[in-house]
Design brief:
This protein has two helices and two strands. Helix content is 25%, strand content 9%. The protein is an alpha+beta fold. Strands 1-2 form a two-stranded antiparallel sheet. The relative contact order is 0.18. It has one domain.
Length: 91
Amino acid sequence: MKQWKCETCNNKVEVEDNYELKYCCRGGIHDSCGCGGHPINPIFCDECEEKIYGKRISDWPESLPMPTNEDIEDMAELSERNTGSDFFKKE
């Protein structure tokens, strides 16, 4: 585990060692997709999760679908195809 900053209040949050922010575009004036340049997989502390979602994400019912890493990669690929951005190069 490593320390990361909450996207809202900058409090420290523990995340998996392999966590990295992912974006769907470059977020610039000319190639932004409407996301405003914000990450598509933000990290929030428990307090901010409750303010944003009404409860902590870990308290959500298991039946509620959570995006997988594959879902995030698909969103990035779709954004690249639609915006022409090469921000997400395949490794």
